Amino acid sequence: MGVSREFYALMMHGARSFARWEIDTSLRILHDRRRMGLLLLLILPVFLIGTTFAESVNEALPNVLGGKQAFSPAYYTTTIFLASIAVGVVAGLITGCIGAGGGFIIAPALMSAGVKGILAVGTDLFHIFAKAIMGSVLHRKLGNISVMLAVTFLVGSIGGATLGGYINRTIYEANPVLSDAFITTVYVFLLGFLGFYGLSDYLRIRKASRKPAAQGRVEGSNQVAPDHDDMTSLSRRIQSVNIPPMIHFDEGVVPGGRKVSALFLVISGFIVGIAAAIMGVGGGFLTFPIFVYVLGVSASTTVGTDILQIVFTAGYAGIGQYAIYGFIFYTLAMGMLLGSLFGIQIGTLVTKVVSGVTIRGFFAVAVLAAFANRIFALPGKLGNLGYIPLSAEAGLLIERIGIAIFFVVLSTFTIWVFWTFFSNLKTLKRED
């Protein structure tokens, strides 16, 4: 139990690190007229072309790339575009308000709306990559990046992303239903773990003490973890292994710096890359705990390297493993990007007027809603594959219950955030 709770804490550190990157990137785009103008110029032609030509082009070129029935160009309507903006807004609200990354709801939301799992994964990766390029935050963090550390890590992450993309595409080519079941199962385990531990964490804190309303996010949720001069016993053992080549880093953090074998960096990058490509995430939620608590890298260097790997891992996985095979829904990605920018802005403002304990509770509920959505979808997919005795009608009914739970919870969360925002607008204006 103690090991599981510690692992949950490490995962939350990573999720918060990724959320900080998303918030910083989104606010830079939103507060820069040139970037917003460029984004609108990119979205407008995609929107017009999609509404005018998507269906006819899709019929004329059914097997462009990817084998079987390619998804690019995908069937598109104005309703789909508006729905993608709504998904982006909710993901942005969760990231900005909870400070723990809202990407975990994007793939379940898209799959609930009827998007194939592999397409949801590819689209989410492209959305992350587009946000990274538009934000251009890298130059502000170069002082915190160990170039050799980053490059060695990227060797592994690109290899992992290649394998993860290959696994997803191979399973889809073999059986599209099995592909959805595989991606759903991965999300069930991850979201179930985070959700139930998040709920127990919330109940434990609520029981221990009732703190007054915080003037910021969840305690520690948006604070960079302190530089760990006292490394974990695991990181000390790993740094003591002398397998050439040795990578030196943190020279400006501790006297003499630190060093670690390139082998461990490549392995770590491989794990992050394969998770990013299979789940459609940037990998930031894994990079932070691995670097700080396993490899013994300082938090400041980790943050810079994390930003770098998100750009390249998401870019390579999204384009190299999904886009060229036709597994990205571009109009959906653009809509999500547009929605998330405004959702994050409102979410970060709301955290100034609500308690930290409340935000923890909403994080647990949001994750558990996504968990319920995926676990209710799983029986129908397993029934269709013949793995369990379940009729198609029964499987569809169970899945619809999960979809209803998911969207009711997310709608309640969204209404609560907007109600809090507008009811405290005068207070927020004074503080600003």
Structure description:
The structure is a single chain. This protein is mainly α. The protein has one domain. 74% of the residues lie in helices and 2% in strands. The chain contains 16 helices and 2 strands. A two-stranded antiparallel sheet has the order 1-2. The chain starts with a helix and ends with a helix. About 6% of the residues have low confidence.
Could you write a compact summary of the structure shown?
The chain is globular, with a radius of gyration of 21 Å. The N and C termini lie far apart (43 Å).
Topology:
Elements (H helix, E strand, L loop, with lengths): L1 H29 L2 H28 L17 H21 L7 H7 L4 H19 L2 H4 L5 H28 L1 H33 L24 H8 L5 E4 L8 E4 H18 L4 H12 L3 H22 L9 H21 L5 H29 L7 H32 L1 H7 L1
Antiparallel strand pairs: 1-2
Helix pairs in contact: 1-5, 1-8, 1-11, 1-13, 2-13, 3-13, 4-5, 5-12, 5-13, 7-8, 7-10, 7-12, 8-14, 9-11, 10-11, 11-12, 13-15, 14-15
